[in-house]
Structure formats: C-alpha cells, structure tokens
Amino acid sequence: MALILDLIIQGAQMLLVLLLAPLLLGYTRKVKARLLRRRGPPILQPYRDLIRLCRKEVVLAENASWLFRSAPYMIFAATWVAAALVPTFATGLHFSWTADLIAITALLGSARLFLALVGMDVGTSFGGIGSSREMLFSSIAEPAMIMIVFTVALIAGSTQLSTIADTMLTADVGLRVSLGLALVGLIIVALAENARIPVDNPATHLELTMVHEAMVLEYSGRHLAVIELAAALKLLLYISIVACIFVPWGLASNGGGLAAYAVGIVTYLGKLAVGGFLLAFFETSIAKMRVFRVPEFLGTALMLGFLGTLLLFVSRSF
Amino acid sequence: MAIGAVLTCVAALLALAGLGVVVHSRPGATRFIYSACLALSSVILIVAVARLLTWPGPDPATTLPLGLPWIGARFRIDALSAFFLAVINFGAAAASLYALGYGEHEEHPGRVLPFYPAFLAGMNIVILADDAFSFLVAWEFMSLASWALVVAHHQEAENTRAGYIYLLMASFGTLTLLLTFGLLAGPAGGYGFTDIRAAEHAAWLPGLVLALALIGTGSKAGLVPLHVWLPLAHPAAPSHVSALMSGVMTKVAVYGFVRITFDLLGEPSWWWSIVVLGLGSITAVLGVLYALMQRDLKKLLAYSTVENIGIIFIGLGLALAFKASGYAAPAALALTAALFHVLNHSFFKSLLFFGAGAVLNSTGERNIERLGGLIQRMPIVAFLFLGGCLAISALPPLNGFVSEWLLFQAILLSPDLPQWGLKLTIPAAGAMLALAAALSATCFVRAFGITFLGRPRSPEAQAATETDPLSRAGMYVLLGACLVAGILPGLIIDGIAPVVQEHVGLTMPTQTTNAWLSIIPIAESRSSYNGLLVFVFIIISTMLAVEVIHRYASRDLRRAPAWDCGFPEPSPATQYTADSFAQPVRRVFGEFAFLARERVDMPPPGDPRPATLDVRLVDVIWEGFYAPIQGWIQFGAEKLNHLQFLTIRRYLSLVFLALVLLLLMVAIWP
What we know:
The structure holds 2 protein chains of 2 kinds.
Chain A: H1 2-35, H2 45-55, E1 58-61, H3 66-84, H4 101-121, H5 125-156, H6 161-170, H7 177-193, H8 212-215, H9 221-246, H10 257-284, H11 294-314
Helix pairs in contact in A: 1-3, 1-9, 1-10, 2-9, 3-4, 3-9, 4-5, 5-6, 5-7, 5-11, 6-9, 7-9, 7-11, 9-10
Chain B: H1 2-23, H2 29-53, E1 62-64, E2 73-75, H3 79-102, H4 115-128, H5 132-150, H6 157-185, H7 193-198, H8 205-221, H9 230-236, H10 239-264, H11 270-293, H12 297-324, H13 328-363, H14 374-377, H15 379-392, H16 399-412, H17 420-452, H18 459-462, H19 469-487, H20 489-504, H21 531-552, E3 557-560, H22 578-593, E4 597-601, E5 612-616, H23 620-641, H24 648-668
Antiparallel strand pairs in B: 1-2, 4-5
Helix pairs in contact in B: 1-2, 1-4, 2-3, 3-4, 3-10, 3-13, 3-19, 4-5, 4-10, 5-6, 6-8, 6-9, 8-10, 9-10, 9-12, 10-12, 10-13, 11-12, 11-17, 11-22, 12-13, 12-16, 12-17, 13-15, 13-16, 13-19, 13-20, 15-17, 15-19, 16-19, 19-20
C-alpha cells in the first residue's frame, strides 16, 4: 500500500512538472511583456502553441536522417527524467535515489548532445553555427555546474538533492560565503543553459546570434512541439533546483501526509512565481551579450564554483 | 590450473605468429589467423573473468626455464593481472572478430598477419610476468611487434616517420623502465617481484623510482609531454590494430604503473599523488583540446586516448593520496573508479576505432572535412559510432558516466586529507576533470556531426556503402559491453573488488546486493546512482512520448527542401566544416593551448583578390620540448662530425688522452 502511494506521488510529480512547464513559460513571457509596458500574449498561450504544432503536418528536410526524427523524443525523455528526479514539492520521493545531482546534470548533457547533433543533421550553416556555439557554452557551463554541485555537496555531505534539501532545512547551515558563490554561479549557468538573455534570446528568429533557435530551425509540427516542451521543462527544472537548494522551506518530507503535500505544492507554486518574475525582471534590465563575451560570463560561474569548492576544502566552516 | 591454461594460449599465439609468416599469402590465411586469435583470447578472457568472480587468492609463481638461467622466467596471476588479462583479451577478442571482416581488405596481409598474434602474446606476457627480466623482455617484444604493425603501410612517408618516432620513444621508455627495475632490485639483483617487494629501500629511492616509472610507463600510455608518438603511430596502423594500441596497449602501460607504484614500491608518500594528479589533469585537458582541433578522424581518436589516460591517472593519483594517509575506503573508491575507467575506455575507444576503420574502408578517407552524410549510407555503423560517442562523452546511461561519477564521488571525500598541498591540488584536478569531460562531449559532437551528419562533402563520401557483417558484429559486441557496464555497474565494481582489496587493503561495499542494483559508493544518504533505472525510465518516457504524440497529434509528414531561413544553398560547401565547428573553442582556449593566431586578409572593395583566413596552431609540446632537444642533438652531432676527418696522429693522441683520463679516474676513485 505504501509502495503504491509512493508510486502515485512520484507519478504526480512527473505529471506536475510536465503540466506546469508551459505555464511557467507563459507566465514569464507575460511578466516580461508587462514590464515592457506591452499587454503580451495570454498566460496559456504556450499550451495553445503546443496543440497547434501537434495538429500541423511535419515538413521534413529531404536529407534528414533517422536521427533527426527520433532525437526530439530522446531529448524530451532525458529532460523529463531529469525533471522528475528534482524535488519540487516533496523530498525523498520513491525514485529520488536513482540519480544524484551529478547524474541529473549529465542527463541534461545527454539531451543537449542530441540537440547539438540534430542541428548538424540537415547540413545547413545555421544549424552548424547553433551546434558549435551551444557546445562551446556547454563546455564551460558544465564544469561550472559540477563545481557548484561540489560546493553544495561538500556543505550537505551528499550529492542527493533530497538529502541536500533536508540538510539545508534542518541543520544549522546558516549564511555561508560558499553558498553565496554557488547561488550566483548556479544562476549564471541556468541562464546560459536555458538560452535566456544575456546569453541567448529566446524570442529571436533569423538572427546571427541565435543559438538554441538555430539548432531547431529545421523542425516543424509535432517534433518541434516535443522540443519546445523539453525546453520549457528544462527552465522549470533549473528553477526547481535553485528553489530546492537555496529556499527549501515548505518542502514536504517523505510520508508527510496529504496536508504537508498540499503545503508543498502551494509553496512550490509560489517559488515558481517568484523565480519566473525575477527571471523576467532580470531579462528586461540587461542587454544581450556578444557571443564571445559569453565564455567570460560563464567563466565567472566556473571560477565562483571553483572558489566555493576551494574554500570548503580549506575549511568546512566557510 | 589457470596459469597453465593461459600460458598455453600465449604459446599458441606465438606459434600462430610463426605460422603467419609461412601461410600469409594462402587464401583463407586471414580468416584462419584471426579466428584462431579470437578463440585463444576468448579462452584467456573466460579464465581471467572466472578467476576474478570467484577469487580464490593468488597462485604461487610458476617458473619456466627461460630467460636468465639463474632465475628463470616467473609467471603469476594475481587479482591485478587477472583484471588486466580480462581487459586485454576482451579487446583482443573484439578486434579479432572485427578483423575477420576488416582484415579481408588488407592489401599486404604478410605485413600484418605474423605480427598481430605476436602483439597479443606480448601484451599478455607483460601482465603475466612475475620478475623484472621477463617483464622487460615482454614489454620490448610488445613494443616491437606493435612497431611492425605501425609501419605495415610503410609506403606512406607519414607512416615511416610515425614508426621512427614511436621506435625512439618506445626504446627510451624501456630504458627508463630498465633503470626503474635496476634501482628496485638493488645491488644484490633480486629481480623476482617477490624479492623486490621484500627488499628494504633507501629513503631517496622511491622518489627516483616514481619519476622513472612515470616516464617509462607514461611514455607508453601517452602522458603529456610524452604523448607525441601516440597520435602519429596509432592512426598509422590498420584500424583493428589502432583499436588495440589505443584501447588496450595503453592499459598495459597503466598496469605497469599500478604494479610499480601500488605493489612493488611499498607504502606511498602523499606528495607522489600531487605529481600524478598534476600530470593526469594536464594530460586530460590538453589531450581533449588537441583532439578538438584534428581533422583526421583516427588522429582525433588517438588524442582522445591521451585525454582518457589523463582521467585514469587522476583516479590513480587520488587513490595514492588516500592510501598514503591511511583512508582505505576512499582509496578503494578512487582505485575502483580508475580501473573502471580502464575497462570503459577499452570498450568505447575500440568501438570508435572500428567505426573509423569502417569509414576508412568504405570511403578511403580519414579527413573528416571530406566526409559527411554517412548516416544515410552507413546507418548501422553510424548508430554504433553514435553509441561510442555517447559513452565516451560520459553521458548516462552508458558506461563512461559511471567511472567519472565514481571519480567525482572520490574527489568529494578528499577534504578530509590533512596535507595542504592536496587540499589545493585536488579541487583543481576536479575542475580539470569536469572541463575535460565537457570538452570531450564537444569533441565527439564534432566528430560524429561532421563525419556522419549533414551532406556529403566529397564524391567518396557520396559513394560510401555499409560495412561487412563481421566488422559490425565486433562493434555490436563492444556497444553491448558499454551498455551493460553502464546499466549494471555493480557487477563490474564487484569484479574489481579483489584487485582493490589486494592493493589498498579494503574494497568498496558489495554492490550487487543493493536494492534495484544501484551503486552506493559510501552510504545511501551520501550518493547513489542507478543506471538500470535511469535507462528504464528513459526508455519508458520515450515510448510514452512517442505513443501519445502518435495517437493524438497529426501524423502527416511531407518531405521538402531544407528551410535554412529561406535561403537554402545547394552546395555542400556551405555547411559548417570541422574547422568552423572548432573555431569558437579555438578562440577561447587556443591562445594558451596552441598559441593560436588567426589572420584575416580582407581585400578592400574593388580589389578582386580572394579574401583569406590564415590560422596558425603551434603544437606547444613539440615546439617547446622536443624541438629544442632535437636541436641540441643536431648541434652535438655536427660538432662530433669533425672527429671523422682527423689525421692518424690526432686519433692516436686522442686514444692516449682517453687512456690517461681513465687511469686518472681509477686512481682517484675511492
């Protein structure tokens, strides 16, 4: 019985992230539009876009290969599995021990590898430019993420997100220099990984500086819908990671009862709303960078993560 | 008697080498030799794996009346050698299976067939040897056999140069190993490994031995700056031999290093690990950066081998650090991770070299700038190569990820170490490891994307055909191994346990008894990973997504010209090339790694000259380290050259002077 309940809660989390992801995207766009004194599309627009894309036929480039047709599903699956393993409203879910934070990072890496490959599949110059730049960014963002994981893991004594969240909740962690460094680093990585301003502009099309959009340029119809959903999931996932490590309050613990879960879900929605608002606010107040300034920006995150780890190697009390 | 069976197989391999000289020109000789190699290496593999799984403790040494008359040749299988026997013979069996198909295309079988079994035998004897003399003889035999294979296609000038540099480096490496064992054996000359273990060493000796062993085994493994021969020699050999040299022979060198530092040299000092960690980190990052700049597919793979050797040495350095401070459990974790990576690298690097061989066979091209679109014409090879790329990029659920994950877990345990030098070195090594892993993903996106995706860039690529079934079978076996090691890592970790027990005195907790077969290095609250469940989840989610989309979404599909923002250009030359893909990385990392300089010559409007982009990359290791040495030798040789043109009187006076000097030395010597 307990097992079934656990499985139901795990399934609820998987469904929850899937359903909330487009909403978060719509909400962020709305806030951004309001900050720019535009009215903006309705919050539910991303759902409508997905449905519309699903209804359309796929226009496939003549020389697209089997990889091009199967990759969207693999990108989606890897991102979804990663998102399902991050505590959103409760810690210690039934399968939370399957993969730790390092494995979640690597799962996102798998998704990105497929995305970069399909960018090159049709053999257009736009696709190649997108893949090449995406891999450059990831070559610095991924080690930065690993160093941030090191920092957090050294404080919590664990790389399991559930355990980290529990430690941050209960133990006397307090304000630490290394945590601050990790937070700033993680935000930089999250901006880059989700192709947000100042690294990439999610609203561009037909621009030489685009990265994510360039890779998926040849996609249409249901394939594009799946990729867009995966991108939305990734944004949700990063906000969930930040929330789970740095503001874990309200998270229900394992077997906390329905009331605790309800509190968890409400606070999670609140965290998403705040996170989405801050993202939109940040994006409207900063300009996009030149492509070759991005490595310096990401290098900052790498250095912050490295510094945090080094401080903790020197003394556990930093 | 395991050792008897293994030695018989090795003797049979040597006999096969002799037979190869005689029968190589007969029809069916290729098939016969490779089938026999496949059978013999499978037998050794089965014996080694069976012993590892049911570890009964090491055998006593078997002495054969060969070699030096007063000690004979001693052979022994302990856990370490059983593990490396398994690695070598799995790679050898897969390569022989692949060669059953691939070897048929060889134009001069007489230059490959005799040396291939000899090479396999040499590697096996190095692992089996239990005295320094047989070890060195086998080591040199292995080097020479592989050298003969490197120069098999000696008509190409590039290959002869590769062979020459390889021969120089291999002889130099063996020389330092000779000195290593000479120092270890001491003036009394106890060359058996048991005597060396029992000997008391002077305080200054371990440091010197470590340095010599690092040079000797590092030059074979490809540690920077001793790696220069590797990207020349490995690609020059036929592809199944390249796979063996890169995937397997470098592991023999790792074996040599582990044997000397963990076993023969006694208790380690903590500063050893700083040297090993530092070299490993530099090797990992420089190796992958150089791999990213290569246009030659096989050279790219060879540089990536350098990177992976760096990763293995980072693991070994961590294990030494923990062992020196008496932290047995973390040392066991780090050593397990390093050995796991040894195994993983032998799987995926062989797989990738086989893929490169299939491409080479089908198109005659190694330059990826002239390939492209092969996924249409060689879909199965493309699938298998993609699997290898995913595995080597350390992505779950394949095997490369597991060993790097274990290494990261070991790094997270190291703040407990008391030495300040290590507290500062290990985080840096961790950052370099993460950087190398991420760059390696970039490198293999480029390798796969340019070779297999896009549109064909040459008529040869246009006319490519799928490779033969036996070659594909060899690749399937390796991809299967990558997958099994990735989703059931607990089996491998438990298999490595006897080795770890032997050398750090403790093992990781037994993994196969964990719930759901997850791996838990220290404690479940600390970290756990379950490759099987990740794999199952990904499969289920993919199937669910496909099912939902195909049920509820439109199923219409129309083929049309590529969109490309409305300006599709039919010429394949407009695609991204390998160089343009690497350009951003070159721009970010190139200044320190290659002293890269780009010069754009853009003619002013009205000038009909074509614009040019001139990129200069400097191989810093070659120019900064080897070129000066070469210069000095040249200088010295030219000066000495004058001695050839003296009169007889001068020669006689030189002889007299030499005699006086020697007599003086004898007189002064205490």
